[in-house]
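*** Protein under study ***
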Amino acid sequence: MKRTQLNINIDPALLKKIKDAARISGKSLISFVSDCFAKEVGALSEKTIDTRISIIEARLESIESTIASFVPTNQKNNTIYI
């Protein structure tokens, strides 16, 4: 597999934790970090923007319904008075 280099600046304490976690898992530092990135990116792509918008719309409808149940309405024209 072709690889490219990524240079990042991180806190030295975090680097030590990453190295320790890699050693405990039995992986090289490169393999451990690559797996972490792949897992994190995979989790992000599971929810597409359309799915996220649908979830937000459903939540908004639920909130609107809840609010509407507390607000008195005029029975003639269903106008909500706030």
Summary: The mean pLDDT is 85. Residues 37 and 43 are 10 Å apart (CA to CA). The helical segments are 12-25, 29-46, 49-70. The first helix runs from residue 12 to 25.
